[in-house]
């Protein structure tokens, strides 16, 4: 019996189509796997079901009855529970309070029934007692827990909803093998009770261990659904890739830069928060890509190289000399540059004019205590022009610019004084196609001029069309290196999803 059905669902954010045509049909008593590449639309589809995103069009049926999921409360009333990829825990509250936060047991209207709270939450904690650790108790503040324990609490919170339809968006990303095995035992029990489960994972072994059927989403559209028993990891990946298996460099884009300028940066057995035992070299004039699904250690590696925070162990050499970046200041003075796709957190200086946003690195590297605006502007304008930055005047506030032009300001600040290595951490996130074209044209020109560039992008096409080599990450480690003719979409997905 069909429990949940979505037909022709779509969602756009301005000119960006997050979901073009989503179809999904979930049976009662099944674990239904939803799979797709970064940005394919799978999380958007789940958020529509959970009521946190309103679709632009399409229909949603529960038990063959059309419904409108107007918000999270409406979803809960309709019997839908969700585990979000981004954890939503209250750190200063206890484990028990977080598990039952939506429905804290009351004693009268004002007071929480502490006895009922501890008893009910204890039942969910007991489900994972053998794998959670002794320090995970009902009274423990969530802020004291490890990452894996927090994820378990979020899972308990979803289970406590007792919803007939449960959605788990990458629930195992921080769990160890024993914790995953226990979680799967619980899911099989729920399935046997007739519950409907939507499961999103980036691990092919998990998908084939727990799933009954799999639906593939590609480029915002549902491609098809098949039973797990009748398919294989390679077949699933081919559904994800479609006909775009090759490199497929656009006609108007020059090929990736030629290398051979000697080693600029060498990394040996580097480990840190979010990544482990990473080794590679990047040459002058080379664009080295970091691929794989989002959150597999790529951004953590780039931030560690920039000293934010530094790595725990391993060795890094720059131009043959040992490099120790204890913080971003030391990284900048050593010749490293870092551009984040999160310009609001790591880039833009809000409330300040464009000139002050584009020149702070220049001031730091040259130890400027005082400088005339005219001299600063003279140094900044060539970098801004190279990126085709559109602005009325350097004295105007940074907030007067579009998102794409704000990102160009952030990038231009590193080009006034040329660095030795440019670290690009998903730099095109949230900018328009024109700004992306300007950025990659400049990246290729910088590489041709001998700059070493390390590029992480959550968009596979950006890596395939611009990187000379791609290191594919999974679980914080490099799983495969793709170079030359191996740089295909199929090989990229194959390594990212660990399809053996």
Automatic annotation (TrEMBL):
GO terms for molecular function: ATP binding; ATP hydrolysis activity. Residues 4-244, 260-500 form the ABC transporter domain. SUPFAM superfamilies: P-loop containing nucleoside triphosphate hydrolases. It comes from the Bacteria. CDD domains: ABC_Carb_Monos_I (cd03216), ABC_Carb_Monos_II (cd03215). Keywords: ATP-binding, Nucleotide-binding, Repeat, Sugar transport, Transport. Belongs to the ABC transporter superfamily. PANTHER family: CARBOHYDRATE TRANSPORT ATP-BINDING PROTEIN MG119-RELATED (PTHR43790), GALACTOFURANOSE TRANSPORTER ATP-BINDING PROTEIN YTFR (PTHR43790:SF9). This is Monosaccharide-transporting ATPase. It comes from Nitratireductor pacificus pht-3B.
